[in-house]
Design brief:
Radius of gyration: 17 Å
Number of domains: 1
Structural class: mainly alpha
Number of strands: 0
Distance between the termini: 24 Å
Largest sheet: none
Amino acid sequence: MQDIATIEQRTRAAVFYAGSSAIFIMWGVLVAAGHALSAFYPRSAGMIWLVISAAGCAGTVAIVASRLRARPRDARDWRLCWAIVALAMFGAAWSHLLGPVVPRPMIYGFQPSLFLLGFILAGIWMGRFFIILGLVGIALLIAGTLMPEPWWRLWMAVSQSGILIVAGIWLHRVGVPR
C-alpha cells in the first residue's frame, strides 16, 4: 500500500508540474516584457505593469480553467488559485502603501520576493524544487539591490523572467511522462 501511495503522490506532482510549466513560461515572458517596456517608457511603468498583470492573470485563469475541465468536478480544487490571488492582492496593497516611502529598488523587489516566498511555501507540499526555486530567486533579487538604477531594471528582467522560464522548462520536463 505504501508503494501505491508513493506512486499516486508522484503522479499528482508530475501532473501539477506539467500544468504549471505553461504558467511559469507565460509569466516569465510577460515579466521580461514589463521590465523592457518600463525601461523605455519609465513614466508609463504603472500602466505597463497594470496591463502586464491583467494579461498574466487572464492567461493563468485560462490555463487553469482548461486543465480543470479535463478533471472530474469533485477533483477540482481552486484553493491554490485563491491563495495566489490573496498573495497578489496583499502584495499590491502593500506596494501601493509603501511606494511613496520606500526606495524604488525595494518596491521593485518586494512583489517578486513575495511570490518567491509563495514558491517556498508551495514547496512544503509539492517538493523541494519550489523551495530551491524560491531561495535562488530571492538570493538573485537581494544581489540585484546592490546594482545602480540603469543596471537594476536589466538585472530584474533577467533574474525574474529567467528563473520563471527555466522553472517552466524544468517543470515541463518533469511533468511529461517518458
